[in-house]
């Protein structure tokens, strides 16, 4: 897919995130200018519905291991008041 789109894996990943929902905003971290420029170029990557379907199929084959947060982090989340 990278060759077909002329984009790096990072750019395709960010473009995929941007294509999910309008309120999803990727926040990639980087310390290098070349990575920042690469990340910014992801807004120009246009994924078709076929591209999104191919990515979805590939992701659905992956087995997720572990939780999103460890036990201590979950305690903090459970204590957080979300009524603001």
TrEMBL record:
InterPro entries: Aldo-Keto_reductase (IPR050791), NAD(P)_OxRdtase_dom_sf (IPR036812), NADP_OxRdtase_dom (IPR023210)
Protein's UniProt keywords contain Oxidoreductase: yes
Sequence ranges assigned to domain NADP-dependent oxidoreductase in this UniProt record: 4-57
Gene3D superfamilies documented for this protein: NADP-dependent oxidoreductase domain
Keywords: Oxidoreductase
Signal peptide residue numbers: none
GO cellular component entries: cytoplasm
Domain of life: Bacteria
GO MF assignments: oxidoreductase activity
This protein's name: NADP-dependent oxidoreductase domain-containing protein
Organism annotation: Pseudomonas fluorescens
